Amino acid sequence: xxxxxxxxxxPAIGSTLVGMLKATSILxxxxxxxxMRTTVRISDYTAKPLVFYSVSAVIYTMLCAALALSLxxxxxxxxxxxxA
Amino acid sequence: xxxxxxxxxxxxxxASGLLTTLAITLAAFVLATGLGLVLAACSRSTVSALxxxxxxxxxxxxxxxxxxAIFWVYYxxxxxxxxxxxxxxxxTLALGLIGAGYMSEIIRxxxxxxxxxxxQAARALALPRFILWRDIVLPQATRKMLPAIxxxxxxxxxxxxxxxxxxxxxxxxxxxxxxxxxxxxxEPLTGVALLFFIVIxxxxxxxxxxxxxxxxxxxxx
Lengths: 84, 221
Description:
The structure holds two protein chains of two kinds.
Chain A: H1 2-23, H2 35-46, H3 49-83
Chain B: H1 4-43, H2 48-63, H3 66-81, H4 87-112, H5 116-124, H6 129-159, H7 171-182, H8 186-210, H9 212-220
Helix pairs in contact in B: 1-2, 1-4, 1-7, 1-8, 2-4, 3-4, 4-6, 6-8, 7-8
């Protein structure tokens, strides 16, 4: 049961994971010192919001893209296995 | 612990915050739909630069966290374009741009889900392009897109609370204010959660009813 269900649910689990990664930025409101919070701090300190918000947007994009890419690789491997 | 009267006292403020939230959501959603249509059209274009640009924007918009986008537009647009924008305008713009990435994928998928036979039949009848799109492709595609579009709408609705971060007086901000007045956050924040449930639960029920997979399940029961 579980291996089959997991294979079917995998894409949805993956996109939830990417969503979770994006949602971590919201923790900055509770002053958790993660990427977003640090970005706000540095940008306020240096008064250069353009540079730092852009850089952290790019960092988030690369993280999400890397995650999404590896997830789709794993997904493809599942498909090959189920076909075999 | 729990004081219902505090929540009732916060409720009028929360309700007016909810109106602002709904207005922001609607504006961002309209922007997202319009821009999403343009992006979806670009992704079907024969010009490869347009296709790549649309795909790139869509990937970027969908992987940037909403909060970063809101702060980015709010702080960077004034620097980039030398204009002052309010939190409402900046935040709505940010949510609209991100939503456009999602909407373009939804629209693209909806059009791709129209069976090949429909296109071939229209071509065999030599229907003009306008008729093909208006009478054959779009009605079928829209029906397939509707559940996803409703989900996207609820996402925008939920994400609009992030505009509190740039000082927009929407529902979450109203809850913080009510909380900081009484030093009790439990009741106003719970009130926000309840209001969101009241708005979003019916929407997700409609989306579920519209989704074709689910209708098969209910038929078989």
